[in-house]
Amino acid sequence: MEAMKMAILMILLLIISEHAKGAIVQFIFGDSLSDVGNNNYLPRSLAKANLPYYGIDFGNGLPNGRYTNGRTVADIIGDKMGLPRPPAFLDPNLTVDMILEKGVNFASGGGGILNETGQWFIQKFCLWKQIELFEGTQQMVSKKIGRQAAMEFFTNSRYVVALGSNDFINNYLMPVYKDSWTYTTTQFIDYLMSTLRQQLIVLHGYGVRQLVFFGLGPMGCIPLERVLGITGGCQTKVNNIAFQFNKAASNLLKDLSLHLPNATYRFGDAYDVVADVIHNPNKYGFENSDSPCCSFGRIRPALTCIPASSLCKDRSKYVFWDEYHPTDAANEIIAEQIIANLGFKPINASGEAPFGAPEPAPSLF
Ligand SMILES: *[C@@H]1O[C@H](CO)[C@@H](O)[C@H](O)[C@H]1NC(C)=O
Ligand SMILES: *[C@@H]1O[C@H](CO)[C@@H](O)[C@H](O)[C@H]1NC(C)=O
Ligand SMILES: *[C@@H]1O[C@H](CO)[C@@H](O)[C@H](O)[C@H]1NC(C)=O
Ligand SMILES: *[C@@H]1O[C@H](CO)[C@@H](O)[C@H](O)[C@H]1NC(C)=O
């Protein structure tokens, strides 16, 4: 009898401690480079990856909301860290148990740091909106497991923030938008940084401690920007803007990491390696780095990939999937570079926090 009671007690304790230990999960804020389906559930959004051939090299090959043929950069980094893949916030199957097990992805195609970015997509989540949805998510989790446990869960989670390219491509660089004639480039980047600073401080207030911000790639070399230029080459001016944005964002993240209590906020980018892949594709096993794998005959820009489009012969040989977005093969290189730059270790390797691997000593500059 005593032995039986003891056994039951031990099983109960095991169950409780397994639950308390909890999985380490990620919350992702981003744009189409990280969207895993949110926009497909926004009925009026004009930015969707819901038609073939999006997703052709992912799972069952049907469109899944990712704006590429396969995995996103965040998918690949998470996989390599041993973290679960967070479902889209708007996934109709999302439950609190699923959030505790896998986290949530709030990323939305067309979204930017600024509210006014990407207006012509009509419906999307800008970063402020994504943060609002995160706050709602915290309340749902709190209600289910209690405030204390919820705070612990969110403090131990990992966070990715990956936005900024739409603030240029679908805002500042388009003369139809007010921001393009209101600000100089430096003023506009300052405006983005002061907004991003507020956003990252608000997230810290919600218990976010271990966060990585992904910088921009050489945007002037995406097929769309080449086609809009005169020569068909990379638009150097646009690349310089991305470079300037990255420098400012890197300084911002360093500054916040130094001054926000317990925050490990880091900047990860792969600008240099992507530029090298674009200029020397053969070195990395690519054959094409200037046009989209999925295109509409000679009609450029093709805007989106649709069933009537034609596909390149070998998707692993193309850097770009459509006018804007890299292929799975290119995303793999980007992910590996970010992991190498930040020294991420798989979560199961040493008990070391994968995103938070502390740097020797934070230097001011
Ligand atoms: C750790 O996780 C990675 C990625 O999920 C996996 O490939 C590796 O085998 C795991 N290693 C151990 C020691 O469990
Ligand atoms: C939601 O769950 C149902 C039933 O398990 C499943 O058939 C469906 O594919 C799921 N939907 C998504 C978007 O995961
Ligand atoms: C931006 O949008 C959010 C809601 O998504 C709103 O709460 C906020 O006031 C807006 N900010 C500005 C500066 O318009
Ligand atoms: C920082 O971490 C310490 C140790 O875990 C904790 O006691 C303290 O409350 C934390 N402070 C904030 C602001 O998170």
TrEMBL record:
Keywords: Hydrolase, Lipid degradation, Lipid metabolism, Signal
One Pfam family of this chain: Lipase_GDSL
Residues annotated as signal peptide: 1-22
Biological processes per GO annotation: lipid catabolic process
UniProt superkingdom: Eukaryota
GO molecular function: hydrolase activity, acting on ester bonds
Family the entry assigns: Belongs to the 'GDSL' lipolytic enzyme family.
Name the UniProt record assigns to this protein: SGNH hydrolase-type esterase domain-containing protein
